[in-house]
Amino acid sequence: MGRLSRAELQEHNRAKVLAAARDEFDERGFRDAKVDGIAERAGLTRGAVYSNFPGKRALYFAVLACLAERESISASESPDETSSGTTRDALGALARAWVARLPLADSDEEHGPARLDMYVVPEVLAEGRIRRPFAQLMKLDAILLGLALERLRPPAGHAGSGSQVRVAEAALTTLHGASRLAAVAPGFVEPFNVVSAVEQLAGLTLHDWWPPPHVITQAWPTDEPWDPPPVRDAVRGEPARLTGDGVVAILGLHRIEAVEEAVRAAPPGARITAVLVTGDPAELAPLARLTVAGLCNCLRQAFPPSAWPRLQVVFDESGAFAAAAGLPAVSDATEAAVRVEAGRIVARADGRGACHAAASAAVAAPDTAAPAGAADRIGLPVEADRLRG
Question: Which CATH architecture has domain 6-52?
């Protein structure tokens, strides 16, 4: 066997550190785990651990993200398309998949795989710079679940044919609350009651509506090549589809909820892709992967593929995808979007409101499109009425 390249050696060591960290966290719990213990288990130096991860918390989030992503449910394992498929059925199935992951009430183990994630929320609470991205990730989970609910027919006698994001927020509030109590008050949570409570949310009318954005950014026409790198869609757990027409939103972790503006404003059937970027990829990127994977694993068990949201989620930890969309630098405050048609970028927008602007833009014909230079930008009409539907 030949010598490993520098990149291959780094990837090999990273995998060894992750495996060792999982064992350390399983055995000792996050609080008592030691970086020196992880290094010893991996057969590496302490410096080698820190060369791959900036600290114990980043390593903890990375371990949990890898475990969540390995649990990916395929389309063939999802509910049959011929099943009843009401929002009540789907919410009940989602809740059952969720509570199945909770630690058993009669378990006396202080640590172990079932309790491995119990320190995620305390670590989020420990530092303000993590709370805002986490809140936006919770918004993304609610948007994904709400969009899936909207694709199912409403239960008999219910007029809930509009947005279901508020119902999704209520469901996730209940489920996350059950998770926290299962960790700190074993035996208090009754899984059957949690499932029943979440099912009842399908009958609620929470007066959900879509408010127009406060700031309307103008999009401008352009004609640029579109050649994104291959990436994975976290919603479906498969390679993302990026060659068709649609809107690609590049969003920092402080601006994730703006993707709903693209979903609501885009033409029917358009594919929307949210590309998540961050100024702290070592720690916040694995937290983002963990949060989305946890929801989507349950969603794929509860909803037939035809009801999965028409929204792709991509993690761009290196910034390569953002660069392909014309953004050389990104941060947690980034909001930019491009409109793709026939394999070309035909419109782009930048700044707050960019998702809505790119999605609703009336794209000019190629022979009349203006140059993409800042001095020649042309504001495109914004169809705000679509947002009030």
Answer: Orthogonal Bundle (1.10)
